[in-house]
TrEMBL record, chain A:
It comes from Jeotgalibacillus proteolyticus. Keywords: ATP-binding, Cell membrane, Membrane, Nucleotide-binding, Transport. Belongs to the ABC transporter superfamily. GO terms for cellular component: plasma membrane. It is found in: Cell membrane. This is Nickel import ATP-binding protein NikD. It is a peripheral membrane protein. The keyword Nucleus does not apply. The keyword Membrane applies.
TrEMBL record, chain B:
One of its GO terms (biological process) is transmembrane transport. One of its GO terms (cellular component) is plasma membrane. This is Peptide ABC transporter permease. Gene3D superfamilies: MetI-like (1.10.3720.10).
From TrEMBL, chain C:
Residues 99-295 form the ABC transmembrane type-1 domain. The keyword Transferase does not apply. It comes from Jeotgalibacillus proteolyticus. It is a multi-pass membrane protein. CDD domains: TM_PBP2. InterPro entries: BPD_transp_1_N, CntB, MetI-like, MetI-like_sf. GO terms for biological process: transmembrane transport. Belongs to the binding-protein-dependent transport system permease family. It is found in: Cell membrane. This is Nickel ABC transporter permease subunit NikB. Its main location: membrane. PANTHER family: DIPEPTIDE TRANSPORT SYSTEM PERMEASE PROTEIN DPPB-RELATED. The chain crosses the membrane at residues 9-29, 105-126, 138-157, 177-196, 230-257, 277-298. GO terms for cellular component: plasma membrane.
Length: 275, 295, 310
């Protein structure tokens, strides 16, 4: 298997406070696989993701190499980078509720994005969007296209982001805590969509989460981050079964304790099974 | 008081507090500091330039400008401060009543505030002066009458926010007296908010009140007041423009000191503001909107 | 949307009534007897009690208080604000031209203020923390600490007296507008500029900007989105600029001897000419209420989220 994205010595620091957020990260994403980045908030997961897409605030500086299909993303011009964003690298952010311009209809926004990357007519765009939205189980997609973000729920907006990704057909999807802001049921549904997304598009994925339960379901490989450093890496199974680093052990054991307690209380996940 | 400690580290804030303190002291002990009798007419010294004896020169009646400037602190700054204090007090009392007890009192007080705030402040002040007649004390009354509603509104919001805090709620449970809760828990919390709004409206109040004096609606001759001095200077503006300088600069310095202080207080209160990144933007925006409406 | 508009306008009517009632009470609170003021102003040598009673009747003051208010408000709706105590002329004939003059000044200034503060606010927000941003903010801070009448006098002295470029006072040619408009702009755009700037910054750090960038939208398009959203917040503030400036040109008008509402009202206050003061307050308060309604309507029109409120 070949690696699609290779990050070498990525260093990120705040130019105002001189504080180093990520000292030197090196990792790679295999083609077609899903890499999960796990860690508590403030461990540098999100910043790493945004660094790959070069979307961090201007006060955050980054050095290192980010190789994607023979190009170092870190040395590309802003214009070249913009062409990659969306079309080849697609970001799905945590909070669906605030991800869309509040005074812009969903359909208008989707059209704006898609005309950026394709030479499609209005009708073609509409068709593609509606197909994609149907595939993520959004009901009455043409109605949704004529709605404002505040008229929809967080889970729906999250799925619209996934639908947009389906239309864009990127090679890498970076999902930054996509399920964190959702309630348990929507979380489950959205997670299912992500699984399906990988199957249909065959794309690679970087999945950021602090929820080990979610990670276990979707990831092939796991990176554990703590205070900006990668403390553990390996296949999901290996990390979960035999965590090497103390911090990972801590994460896994607390996770187990919580889920055991949960299972004990709920007597299995009957609720989820019903859905 | 963490706020004050933070403030000390802020050079501009520290400097402006010193300017304000010195101004207030000069005003309180004006007769000691004023080198001459501010109202003494001396026609032989008309428009005299600055000299060793009269540091800032003399005005159209030969009066000592420096002395008039110093005695003018009283109406221009001290009385404004007093009027501000009174309206903040009224506003705080009503704001606490409304925010703490909620219910009917809240509705009534807020209705009153809304009605007061639906009048443009400046026009309201003019109207009150029109009814009561010309004079500094009437201007001050007018300002107290129009400003309290605004303070009440903001202090209520602040009280509401803190009254929801758990430990304030817990204090209510064992039956501690309301007044004690307000005094012990709520007042210290809201105090910093009150300080910020009070200091931020001080600057605009000084400007507006001196503006009324400038129009001749305020203090009457021969008493000295900065706006009044500018009004007198204006009459000879074409021949003696330099007379405009001293009182104008005095106003600019004091008002900027108050504005800087309010800025520093705000930062000291909410250190996140200084880094400019994350902040409760919606909050600051809405207060800014109110600020605009009050002008 | 239509329903919202109607509701909002209906809501303004009770507010107008309250405002007018307060105005009426305010004037009646005066410690002076209007009849006496009228007679004094007309230069009647000896004021007898019969004369007072007769004048009171002429002024309708013998009726019950509420009836007086109703009479007054009905008359006001027909633009009959009574007669000036001092000159005896109908108030409307004095007020109308002054109002138009002030309105001209206000509209032009508001226009300049809005354009300038949107321009500078957007520019500063996009260059947050850089030299341009910091210096503009510093200047605006400094200008808001300056008494506008002082600045006006200094500018008159420099441009009109020293350089002899512009007229010192009065109203006539277009040149007469230049200085007053500059002064009003300078003393007000600071606040509005800060509103635009902070609402731009507020939007700049929103998630939707990040997501739009992540979708590969060009920066120019994203800025358009941001500007549109931040102007939404500012529009209501801008709407209120018109009545606020209308009510606070008093000092500037005085400096430039502008024959507007401000000059008229100051003269009325000094001469204790109550009908004029009353009409002045009523008109401006009404403008305030109406513009407030207008700003809410525009806001709802631009911001779909708000339409369901009220």
């Amino acid at each position: 298997m070949t690696s699609l994205l290779e990050v070498r010595n990525l260093k990120i620091w705040d130019s105002r406070t001189e504080k180093i957020i990520v000292p030197a990260s090196t990792f790679q994403l295999t083609k077609g696989s899903c890499l999960a980045i796990v860690g508590e908030s403030g461990s540098g997961k999100s910043v790493t993701c945004k660094a790959i897409m070069r979307l961090n605030n201007s006060s955050l500086q980054q050095t290192g190499e980010i190789w994607f299909k023979g190009e170092n993303l870190n040395t590309l011009s802003e214009k070249q980078m913009r062409k990659k964003r969306g079309k080849q690298l697609c970001l799905i952010i945590q909070n669906g509720m605030s991800a869309f311009d509040p005074s812009c209809l969903i359909g208008v926004f989707a059209r704006e994005v898609l005309t950026q990357h394709f030479d499609w007519g209005r009708k073609k765009i509409e068709e593609e969007m509606i197909n994609a939205m149907e595939s993520v189980l959004l009901q009455e997609p043409s109605k949704i296209m004529r709605k404002y973000p505040h008229q929809l729920s967080g889970g729906m907006l999250q799925r619209i982001m996934i639908a947009l990704a389906i239309v864009l057909k990127p090679e890498i999807i970076i999902a930054d805590e996509p399920t964190t802001a959702l309630d348990v049921i929507s979380q489950y549904e959205v997670l299912e969509q992500f699984k399906k997304l990988r199957e249909t598009l065959g794309c690679s994925m970087i999945f950021v989460s602090h929820d080990l339960g979610v990670v276990k379901k979707i990831a092939d490989e796991v990176l554990v981050m703590k205070d900006g450093e990668i403390v553990e890496r390996g296949s999901t199974k290996a990390v979960f079964l035999a965590p090497k680093h103390e911090y990972t052990r801590f994460l896994v054991s607390t996770r187990l304790a919580v889920s055991e307690h949960f299972n004990h209380v709920m007597k299995g996940d009957a609720v989820l099974a019903e859905r | 008081m963490k706020m004050l400690l933070n403030l000390r580290q802020d050079k501009i804030g520290f400097l402006s507090s010193i300017v304000i303190f010195v101004t207030i002291m000069l005003g309180v002990f004006a007769p000691f500091f004023a080198p001459h009798d501010p109202n003494q007419v001396n026609m032989s010294l008309r428009y005299a330039p600055s000299s060793m004896e009269y540091l800032l020169g003399n005005d159209h009646l030969g009066r000592c400008i420096l002395s008039r400037l110093i005695i003018g602190i009283r109406p221009s700054v001290l009385w404004v401060l007093a009027a501000l204090g009174v309206s903040v007090l009224i506003g705080a009392a009503l704001g606490f009543l409304a925010g703490y007890f909620r219910g009917k009192i809240d509705t009534v007080i807020m209705r009153m505030c809304d009605t007061m705030l639906s009048f443009p402040g400046y026009v309201m002040a003019l109207a009150i002066i029109g009814v009561l007649g010309v004079g500094l004390q009437n201007i001050l009354i007018a300002f107290i009458l129009i400003k309290w509603a605004w303070f009440a509104r903001i202090i209520r919001t602040s009280v509401l926010q803190y009254a929801e805090l758990d430990y304030v709620k817990f204090a209510k449970a064992p039956g501690i007296k309301d007044l004690q809760i307000i005094y012990k828990h709520l007042f210290p919390l809201t105090f910093s908010d009150i300080a910020v709004i009070a200091s931020s409206s001080m600057g605009s109040m000084i400007l507006q009140i001196s503006g009324f004096s400038f129009l001749g609606l305020g203090i009457q001759a021969p008493n000295a007041e900065w706006g009044m001095m500018l009004n007198e200077a204006r009459e000879v503006m074409f021949t003696r423009p330099e007379l405009m300088l001293a009182p104008g600069l005095a106003i600019v310095i004091v008002v900027s000191a108050f504005n800087f202080l309010s800025d520093s207080l705000q930062v000291a209160l909410n250190p996140a503001l200084s880094t400019g990144q994350k902040r409760s933007k919606q909050e600051s925006l809405s207060t800014e909107k109110k600020e605009v409406l009050m002008k | 949307m239509a329903i919202y508009m109607i509701n909002r306008i209906l809501l303004a009517i009770p507010m107008l009534l309250v405002v007018s009632f307060l105005t009426f009470i305010l004037i009646n609170l005066s410690p002076l007897d209007p009849a006496e003021v009228v007679l004094q102003a007309q230069g009647v040598p000896v004021i007898t009690s019969e004369l007072l009673a007769q004048t009171r009747q002429e002024l309708g003051m013998d009726k019950p208080f509420l009836m007086q208010y109703v009479d007054w408000i009905i008359a006001c709706l027909q633009f009959d604000f009574g007669h000036s105590y001092v000159t005896g002329q109908p108030v409307w004939s004095l007020l109308a031209p002054a109002f138009v003059n002030t309105l001209k000044l206000t509209v032009i200034s508001s226009f300049v203020i809005i354009i300038l503060s949107v321009l500078l606010g957007v520019l500063c927000a996009l260059n947050e923390g850089k030299l341009l941003d910091q210096s503009l903010r510093g200047i605006s801070f400094f200008l808001t600490s300056m008494p506008s009448y002082w600045l006006a006098a200094l500018m008159v002295w420099y441009f009109s007296v020293k350089l002899d470029l512009l007229p010192t006072s009065g109203m006539g040619s277009l040149q007469h507008y230049i200085l007053p408009v500059i002064i009003i702009t300078v003393s007000y755009s600071g606040i509005y500029f800060r509103v635009v700037r902070s609402s731009m910054l507020n939007n700049l750090h929103q998630d939707y900007v990040l997501y739009s960038r992540a979708c590969g939208l060009p920066e120019r398009r994203i800025i358009l989105h941001i500007v549109r959203n931040s102007l939404q917040v500012s529009v209501s503030v801008f709407c209120m600029a018109v009545p606020i400036i209308l009510g606070s040109t008093v000092v500037i008008e005085n400096v430039f001897a502008w024959p507007g509402l401000g000059s008229l009202s100051v003269r009325a206050i000094l001469g204790r000419d109550f009908p004029i003061i009353q009409a002045y307050v009523l008109i401006l308060a009404a403008a305030f209420v109406l513009f407030n309604a207008l700003s809410d309507i525009i806001n709802a029109w631009m911001n779909p989220k708000l339409r369901n409120d009220l």
